[in-house]
Amino acid sequence: MTPRSWERWIPYYEAKGYRVLAPAYPGLEVEVEALNRDPSAIERLTVPLIVDHLERVLRGLDAPPILMGHSAGGAFMQVLLDRGSSRTSRRAAVRRAGAATGCAAPGRLRPV
């Protein structure tokens, strides 16, 4: 997943006063066109690499986040929430995270 997947959501939530982060999966910090030319970064991705990367991003935050994910990203979000509630050493990263999942237009997303 590249940050471009969230390009319409980012300004929507920033306009509502939120600080928005849309971290790329490891190795996908380039534009989609570059990945189309050379997909080797995608071939090297694994679920543990992605989830560990996202957890490092969360650990760098000053406040509890609201996590959002769609499709596989929603599953990764659930893994992060589980890590926060079941692993003491990782609890601080996600312990009070809010969560929302869905596939909807901005303004129609409903919290879970």
The value of Rg in angstroms is 14 Å
DSSP E strands, number: 2
Helix proportion of residues, in percent?
Answer: 40-55%
How many distinct folded domains? 1
Structure description:
The chain has 112 residues and is mainly alpha-helical. The chain has one domain. The protein contains 6 helices and 2 strands, in the order H-H-H-H-E-H-H-E. The two termini are 23 Å apart. About 19% of the residues have low confidence.
What are the SSEs and their pairings?
Blueprint: H1 9-15, H2 32-37, H3 40-43, H4 47-59, E1 66-69, H5 72-86, H6 91-94, E2 98-101
Parallel strand pairs: 1-2
Helix pairs in contact: 4-5
Key phrases:
single chain, 112 residues, mainly alpha, two-stranded parallel sheet, 6 helices, 2 strands
In brief:
This protein has helices at residues 9-15, 32-37, 40-43, 47-59, 72-86, 91-94, and strands spanning 66-69, 98-101. The chain has 112 residues and is mainly α. The protein has one domain.
